Amino acid sequence: MRRRNLSMLIAFLFIGNVSISYAQEENNEKDKFFVSAQIRTRGEYRNGALYPRNESDLPSGFINERARLSLGYERQRLSLRFSAQHVGVWGQDALVDKNGRFILNEAWAAFEFNDYWFMQLGRQALSYDDERILGGLDWNVAGRYHDALKIVYRKNGHQLHGIFAFNQNDENVIGGTFYDSSKTKLYKNMQTLWYHYDFASTPLQFSIMAMNLGQEGGDAESRKSDTQYMQTFGTYIKYAPGQWNLSGAFYYQFGKNVSSRSVSAFMGSARASYNINKSWSVNVGTDYLSGNDKSDGTYKAFNPLYGTHHKFYGAMDYFYASDFIGGYNPGLSDTQIGVGYKVSSSVSMGMNYHYFATAVKLENLERSLGSEIDYQLDWKIMKDVSLSLGYSVMFGTSTMDIVKGGNHNSWQDWGWISLNINPQIFCK
Fold first, then answer.
1. What is the per-residue pLDDT for 2?
2. How far apart are CA 350 and CA 414, in angstroms?
3. Other residues' Cβ atoms within 10 Å of the Cβ of residue 171
4. How do 60-75 and 78-89 pair as beta strands?
5. Residues 116/153, Cβ–Cβ less than 8 Å
6. For residue 274, what is the enclosing H or E element?
């Protein structure tokens, strides 16, 4: 299977090159064809990542890898992109494997109707603002993609995006439109409007997002559909005067969740960073995501949906990148402070401290969840080659034991090192 896939890719490259060379001779349009590749290998030591460990739990270790090949074509008013990848852990596949895992993570075409309007259709990453609600999740070895139609208007600093998606499990002949999301963890349908404006006279950016998310609340056994719709509405602002970088976001959710419960939830964030000089910078921030303290009535826990949670709520991914347990969703209050240091033009490092607490007071429990310290170093070895490494420690509380599991008296830490090679290997 792998040999056949590789042969198809080589043939595609050859045919594409010949076809485009011929097209360039036949017309005066400027055609561009490019190929890029990525090998990203990451080793991890997990001794309490994602979920706290118990005293008797042994640490784990592995090496995962993303191997990605991307093909792109551009000409006046038309763009296409195909990206295929194999992801997994070293040793996961047999030495002789006839059923290799090789999938398309990107496959889209974009058409420009005129200078202001264009449409992008197919499998694509959706990344907006600071990736609170919609993010590419590049930290994950597989990344995240959506099958969607995107219609865009842009002019004089204004952008308006409309995103539309409708998901099904198969080409069904009969049986209605029930969508089993137990494996995909996806929505059934989604409609999103995003407006963004870049001010010309000041370093200010402003965005508004409105999303209508349809989730399947039906019965998998009878396959009877019962779509529940939840709406998310909010704004993001970024202001970067001089050595400052200030940003904030607020989102409100309403409608009904997949369990047919009425929703009334919100989240807010504020960030500030300051470049002291060319080497040193400091940052502070706070995030608040509302939580739920009872099993009936209106559901008040905010769902950050398809954002890149690893960027915000601690590198060990205890919150929203992994679930609470025991039916809890107490929300999150995250207060943080950090420092960055640029060693040279190619080496930088940073350290951040997070203090976590539940957003709501749970019965007979303190709100404090604990503290996390994250360290990361980035080294650009050469063009297209970079190395990153990090180490994190979590100091949990008894409340953390209840809502996330594990034993806070156990040492919880996590370390990783990643080599990223990402060259453009052909462009014509």
1. 45
2. 16
3. 5
4. antiparallel
5. yes
6. strand 262-275
